[in-house]
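Build the 3D complex.
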Amino acid sequence: MSIVGTRVVRVEDEKLITTGGTYIEDLREEALTGAVHAMFVRSPIAHARITSIDTSEALAAPGVVAVYTAEDIDLAPGAAGPVAEPWLADGVVRYVGQPVALVLTQERYQLADAAELVDVDYEPLDAVASIDAALSDETVIFPEHGSNLMQEHGHEFDDNAFADCEVVITETIVNQRVAPAPLEVRGAACVWGEDGRLTFWPSTQNPQMARTIIAAGLGVGEESVHVITPDVGGGFGAKIGADPDAVVIAWASRKAGRAVRWSETRSENMTAMTHGRAQQNTVTVGGRRDGTILAFRLDIVQDAGAYPRTLFLPTLTELMASGVYHFPKVEARSRGVVTNTTPISAYRGAGRPEATAAIERAMDLFAAEIGMDPAEVRKVNFIRPDEFPYQTPTGAVYDTGEYAQALDKVLENAGYTELRAEQARRRDSGDPVALGLGLATYVEITGGDGGGESGRVDIHADGSVTAYTGSSPHGQGLDTTLAMLLSDQLGVPMDRITVRHGDTDEVPKGVGTFGSRSLQLGGSAVRQAADEVIERAKQVAAELLEASTDDMELNAEAGMWQVRGAPSSRTVTWAQVAEKAGEGQLSADVWFDKGTPTFPFGAHLAVVEVDTLTGKVVLRRLVALDDAGPVVNPVTFTGQRHGGLGQGAAQALLEVMNYDADGNPTTATLADYSFITATELPDFELLDMATPTDRNLLGVKGIGEAATIGSTPAVHNAVVDALSHLGVKHIDMPTTPMRVWQALARVREAD
Amino acid sequence: MRVTIEINGRTVTDEVEDRTLLVHFVRENAGLTATNIGCDTTSCGACTVLLDGESVKSCTVLAAQADGHKVTTLEGLSGPDGEQHPLQRSFREQHGLQCGFCTPGMIMASASLLAHNPKPTRDEVREGLEGNLCRCTGYHNIVSAVIEASGQEVDR
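Done.
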């Protein structure tokens, strides 16, 4: 029986549950002996002119090795976006948390003492702390740019787009700023060798990309940078590549001639690591009273933060604007603006959750207006299975989908009809605790970067296997998944297969892990490499068995080579074949270049109870079907879904990164930021379906972000649904008790 | 000041600053790096260890306060023969970890939870682990892992 598709516990876990992993702070490499510690001095003000920096007192403090400011930095400006981001603030600071100076000390405990002594004089400037303030251009953050508007993209809106509609609904939906907040904060360690080569250990999702960024930042060739990624304590999109801080650390190490260790504090992380989401989206949806939607418009404004690093996010939202629906007319446009807040970048889903949140709220708003059940409105408008491949009006080409079937399975298994009946009973009896049902049907894009991935497979003389992947897992369990694929393909037991990644000398080419790309691209690369190895082995086995190459076959069940049609005759093992071939001969190093995106989909139903007296929301149930094609390992597949459901629900219920009108963050520690805990989440109820794709060698789609994308609007819709009979039509996320209570108070006042 | 702490059955004595936190003593002076630091507000629980058998967040305890006391970390949880603790086995079996950063603290908090409530319900596990944050798992499988370690049937 094939191991693929069966439940296999992770090979990664052994050390994690005994001695713990080796994260950045755990590195005890000899080369790091005597390393100095680094801490950034960060701006406490959102927008200000730096009038002076006095480092003399800090330099005199115990253990201080160096204090660097912008004027010490002899690097070319960083990567060019619409506006350049300085390595250390140069003349002006533009968000709370922006690095202004770097302190190096002998001992860890000397860092904070010394950093406090760096005396920076700030002359405050007006802060731009919201999208509306940015759009007004009353204060322009980059005067040389002339406006806070950094990007415009997408459709011209047609004045007559909704002319044929019986019903037109418009709503502005805030997709709030959230903090990715991986449990391990950002950090790095590095040392320059006598050969002038840098060894750099970052906490990153892609070592090769980190190498490229660091080498470019330092102005050295990529061959001069060796990146090694130890265990990574979570990334969620925010550890893609390397932040400018990492380049400064590498530069400081060279400048000081010392090995350097850097680990930010959690409070720093909350303001200095990029945030996610932060869109303000206006949806307009129009159609007929029978539920048919004729036109959909999405007007996206992305708050890019102080330095726009990732303006692809709003364009991805445009691309996925119309979701799982076949609408005759779809218009989407986006604008990206700068504000005096922490820069925005990828966070689990990166652009797609925002699209799904908008369209799925719009479907419910439309359903409520025409008095139709939200499930029925969705069914009327789904793209049908016979329409695939389906090109959306905004340019995405979906591979395969069974949207109606997914929704039906969720409704049936969750007992949707009974839940609606219970809701009606509660409403009739005047129960102050209201029941809410929220649906989201979604499609998402995985491997959306369209790039490829590297894969290498070596079969050693003892028959054991080493595989190398350019993907860079950080909790996803890809080592286990790839070993399962290879075990299945080669007939070699799991414990004879080692998967390696994360070292750029060992795996020079790679793209890494983001956008749920690793299995479909990294897995396909390893599959392709193994295919090549099998072809070579076939010739060697034929020599050993004195048979024709064409007659050789691999019995993957037994892990033996045999003559086709004569299984009872002589066989040879992988070890025999590898021995005969000679060390290094059964090896293939490939680049899987068919990086076509795939489109996982699903349907989620959330059930909430809302106390209409206090506003408290309790998430009772989350029923989720996520279809990402065939499943390699149900253990990790389920784990990714659970994690996504938890993070998605967190955005709907609790999490928000808040700033006051002056741009001061008010949720800058985990004590203030409402990180979701075990008590706020239910046991998840998962349903399975597997619709393969034809776009890669494995037929698989990505699962890393899917559940995040579906769960947020499902939970959000459930909260609004709970209050719909009281006249509430919309509440922005997070649906905290205060927000709910205020929405109810507004309705009562209006009555 | 001089501090002596018995960590996982081994006596560690060292000279430290008065302000040294227990978590740093464990990691730097005793060289046991499983215990992680995830925040600076005692909110995340990644640094949870047992102090005389009770779970504490070791970022909120001074090394000096633990002077003369016994500390158990994840590394000390396996038996002397290397046999894993039921929680270590169940976290693996139930896929109660992904990136693994919260795991040492999560397992130590779970050990304390089970010591006080050997047969908890799923809701009681959720309440008991409220002080430990995980960003990867959505907690579902962590709850299952604790239930399995308690010898109860896990209803997946």
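The two ends of chain A are 66 Å apart (CA to CA).
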